[in-house]
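Lecture 7 notes: from sequence to structure.

We start with a single chain of 136 residues. Read the sequence below before looking at the structure.
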Amino acid sequence: MENNKKIKMSYSISISDDKTYIIIKVKGEITGENAMNYNTESHALGRKLGISRYLVDVTEARNVDSVSRNFDFAYHDMQNRDDIDRSAHVATLVSPGDHSHDFIETVAQNAGLSVRLFTDKDAAVKYLKGGLFTDH
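Now the structure, written as tokens:
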């Protein structure tokens, strides 16, 4: 059976005022496929500017991928691309009560990616600026 449901998602990419991190604002439904689009675009900008810290604001977006697809995204999609900086540090800002991003955080960390979820923007920015990164 084919799923003809059209996934609706949009995003914007900008640079923080102090030019220390890149901001990705996502709206709608996130899948591995459309997440790869904003990841590759923002990582290209990061390479160009020498920035490897990212604030991903998904407060208006939900992860709609399956558990197995999230696993594949973290362990295969993000690992097998030369245009992804696997040493980047990512703070993902989620809405309180939205747990659709919890599993991707876990598998991304287990796959060696520096990704952390936050419900408070100030805490996410402090994390990115403070370099309080933990090994996985």
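The two ends are 39 Å apart (CA to CA). Keep this in mind for problem set 3.
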